[in-house]
Fold this sequence. Notes:
The model is unreliable at 1-20, 30-38, 147-151 and 570-574 (pLDDT under 50). This protein has 13 helices and 35 strands. The longest helix is centred in the middle third of the chain and has 34 residues, at 408-441. The protein has a 10-stranded mixed beta sheet with strand order 3-6-5-4-7-2-1-10-13-12. The protein folds into 4 domains: 2-340, Immunoglobulin-like (Sandwich), CATH 2.60.40.1730; 341-474, Neutral Protease Domain 2 (Neutral Protease, domain 2), CATH 1.10.390; 478-561, Aminopeptidase N, middle-beta domain (Immunoglobulin-like); 577-646, Immunoglobulin-like (Sandwich). It is α+β, with helices and mostly antiparallel strands. Helix content is 24%, strand content 36%. Residues 24, 317, 334, 338, 357, 360 line the site of zinc ion.
Amino acid sequence: MKKVITICLILFVKLIGAQDQHLCSISKLSALQRSSLTKNNLTNAQASLIEKYDVGFHHLSLSVERTSTFISGNVRTIARSRVATLDTFLFQLHTNFTVDSVHGSNQTPYSFTKIGDVTVVMLPQSIGLNQIIDLTIYYRGTPPSGASAAIGNGFSNRASPTYGNQITWSLSQPYSAYEWWPCKQSLQDKIDSIFVSVTTDTSNKVGSHGLLKQIDLKPNGKHTFHWQSFYPINYYLVMVTVGQYTEYRQYAKPKGYADSILIQNYIYSNPAAYTNNATSILATKPQLELFSDIFGLYPFHKEKYGHVMAPFSGGMEHQTMSSMGIFNFGIVAHEVAHQWFGDNVTCATWSDIWLNEGFASYSEYLARRYLLPNTALQELTDMHAASKQEVGAVYVTDTANVNRLFSSALTYNKGAAAIRVLHYLLGDSMFFEVCKTYQTRFANGNASTQDFNDLVNELSGKNYDFYFDQWIYGIGFPAYTSTWNQTNGKFYLKVKQANAHSGGLFSLPIAFNLQRAIGDTQIVLDINTSEQNIELPVGGTISNVVIDPNVWILKNSSMTKDVGLSVGAQAETASLRIYPNPGEGMVWFEPSLPNTARVEVIDLSGRTCMTLSGKDGFDLSSLQAGVYLLNVRDNAGKQQVIKYQKY
Ligand SMILES: [Zn+2]
C-alpha cells in the first residue's frame, strides 16, 4: 500500500514537472501522504488535556548518526500550567519509541503511562495556574518509515542519488514531529526558545536552529553540536539534520541594519554539490536583503539564516535553517520568504495555510521583480497557469484532505495569484505597509485569515471583505469576453464577465491598453457586472486593445475587434457627472467628490495633463481648448471616466 503510494508520487512528480507542481508542495504532500495521520491524532479529551499547559522551552539532547534513523536521548520541557489544577502532563510520541523514564528537575522519577502515540505523566503533586513544570523524557527507538525516504518521512535516512552523501533528516510538517521527538503538536502554542544538542560521529555535522554555541568532543569518536535559539518556534519547524557537510558562509547586510546577518550553508561534502548550486545559494544574500526591505528586517536577525541539504524533493522552511533537497532561484526565495510568512507569523490553523504558502510563492515573483526583472513576467504567467489546474477556494475548509491542504494549484499558486490581486487593489505602498505591519503585529505568533482581513481593512481605511469573499473564500476566477471597435473618433468596448467556474462575479478595476501609433493610452474601468458597455472619444487609430496589460489579475480573457459594435452599444451611464460641461474651467461634480478623490485629466493623445485631488470644484482653466477624459477615482476605489470639453 505505502509502496504503491511512493511509486505513484514519484511518477506524479516526474510527469507534472517542477514548473507545475510546486516543489515546496511536493515535499509536504509527500510527508503527509506517507503518514497514516491526517489530523493531530488526539482524542478530544487528549487535545483538551494537552492545551492545559503552555510550552516555554525544549532542550532536545539526542544521539543521531547519518547511517540510520535510530534515535536515543532525552527532551527537557519547561512548561507553564494554564489551569488552576494540573496533575497530569500529556505529550505525543510515536508508538515505535520506548520511553525509559520521565524525571522532574530534581531527578525524581515520575510515573507515566504510554498508550500508542500518547504518554500521560502523573505529576507528583498537582500544580496551580502559571506554575512551572520542568521534566525530562528519556526515550529511544526507530521512527516509523511509512514510505521510501525519497519523498520524506517524519525522520528519514537516505543517500543523495546525485552526490552520494548519506543524510539523516527530519521533516515534520504538518503532524509528524511526534514521529521523532516527544512534543505537543499544537500550532497555537509556540515554544518560546529551544536548544538542540546532537551527539554524532566526528565525521558528521549537525544542522539546527539559532546559533551554534559550541562543539564538544566526546569519547569513542563522537562530538556534540549545541544549537540554541531564543526565538519562539512552532513544533513542526523543529529540525535536526545529520551528515557530512562542508560549510559555506555569506553575510547579508540589510538596508538600515547596522550589523550583518550570517547565512550558514551546510552543503554535501561532495564539492560538486556546491559548484552545481553556487549561483542559487549565493542568491540568498540579495533575497534576504530584499525581503528585509519590503517585509521588515529579517525576523531572526540576532541569530542566522541558513540551508542544510537533505535528499528529498523540495525545500522546507525550518526556522533559521531551511532544509533543501534542491536549489534554484525560486525555491531559495520561497524558503527565505517563509521565515517571515510561516515562521515569524505562522498560520493560526491549517485552514489558513495560504497565509504561509501564498505569500512564500508570491515572494518568488517579488524576488524576480526586483532582482531578476527579465524573468518576472514568465513567473506570473506560470503562476496563473498553475492556479488553473484545480478548481476551488484558496481557504481550506477540509484540513483532513491532505491533497487539498498542500494543493500546489490552490494553496500555493492561487494563493499567490490572490495576493497579487490584493497588491493591485492596494498599490505598492499600502500593500507593503500591510506586509510589514502583519510581521510586527503578529511577530513570533500566529494569524488567521480573519486577522489578515481585519488588518487590511484597518490600514487601508476601506472595507476589503469583498476581496476575501471573492478571492480567498470564493471559487474560481473571472472570465472576460471583450469586443471593441473604433469608429467616428469613438472607442466602443463591451466586456462580458462570468466566473470561469461555479463561483460568483468579481468586482475589479480593470486596465485596458489601447495601442495606437501616436502612443498607447490606458483606461481603467470598474468591471463588476455580467455585461458592461463603454463609449469614449479617443483620437488616433487604435490597432489593438490589451486587457490587464501588467498581468495583475488571474483570469481567462479574450479580446476581439467587432466592426459592428458601434451599433447598439450603450454608453455607460455614469452615476457621476460634471458641470458645466462643456465649460471654461471651473468644474463641479455631482454628487460632489469626497476630499480623498483623485482626478486625472488626460488628453486624447493619452497624455496626463493634470492630476487633481481634494474637494471639487476644480480649476481646469489652464487647459487648452479641446476634449479631455477625466479619470476619477473615489476613496472606495471606484473609478469612472468622464468626457469633458473645454472651450
Ligand atoms: Zn512553502
